Amino acid sequence: MKIKLLTIFSLSLILITSCHSQVNMAESEKKPLETKNQNPEIQKFILDNPDDGEPSVSKGVVSNGTLLNGKLLPYSGSNFQYFADVSFLKGRAFVHSSVKKIVVDSYKILETKSSNHRFYLMESSNKCGGKLDPHKTHQNGTSIDFMMPLLKNNQEYIGLDTIGITHYLLNFDDRGRYSEDTLVKINFDLVALHLLELNKVAKKNGMKIGKVIIKLELKDELFASIYGKELLSNGIYFAQKLTPLINGVHDEHYHVDFEFIK
Question: Which helix (H) or strand (E) holds 260?
């Protein structure tokens, strides 16, 4: 899909205009992760939504469910950060307590395996679950989007990581190249490594990756990467059929649904 339908992201555009504007990209890139969360609004939101240590309860399914005692994802850590202040402050970064632990613990492991990369979390669920427009799922605290890590000239590239909610509107071709600059491409090896670590940590916490959604045409590139070969044999389920619209909007991020092991 060369041009994404903006109508499906109407809520995202409303978020941009209804809250404070994003930090200028050039300025944001100069700031280390640990200083980004000094935004007083972010700090207050975190304090207003503390983790009480009690377990969450997910009811229903990812496309029709609710979340009890949802936990706010960390805004940032030593090697990761939430992608958009607007989305965070609108309460779209809540997950089940087990999913929160999986995400944080996985990033700790990745510090030793990809120490120089900064990862970006994207949208998850409302505090009590339910509909999270424009997403079809994300309703019971077990779904989360992760930003595709990028390369330019085979070096880490962060020039598109800090543009906020509009990141969802970026376009990548079937080989994972950015439509506006084909020198920028998805780091498929790092995507595969992240998914493997997420699944390993999930299994230690009574869960597993139930489904991964990425643009169907990108799967060949993903599985051809170094860690992709291990990923292919790992048994993680990837969506096999998607509508043209859903397929087209899963090029700049990968969607993960976690599920409890029965």
Answer: strand 253-260
pLDDT of residue 114: 80
pTM over 0.85: yes
| pLDDT, tens only, 87-130 | 999 999 999 999 999 999 999 999 998 878 999 999 999 999 99
All structural domains of the chain = 6-19+56-260 (3.30.1380)
CA 27 to chain centre: 23
Which tokens sit at 203? 């299994």
Helix ranges (H only) for the chain are: 10-18, 25-30, 33-36, 40-48, 85-89, 97-113, 188-204, 219-224, 226-232, 244-248
List, for the chain, all residue ranges whose pLDDT scores fall below the cut of 50.
Answer: 1-2, 5-14, 16-35
pLDDT at 92: 98
Distance between CA 196 and CA 211 in Å, rounded? 13
How far does Cα 237 stand from its chain's mean position?
17
Angle at which helices 97-113 and 188-204 pack, to 10 degrees? 130
How do the residues of the chain divide into helix, strand and coil, expressed in percent and rounded to 5? 35, 25, 40
Judged on CB neighbours under 10 Å (0-12, 13-18, 19+), 87 is buried
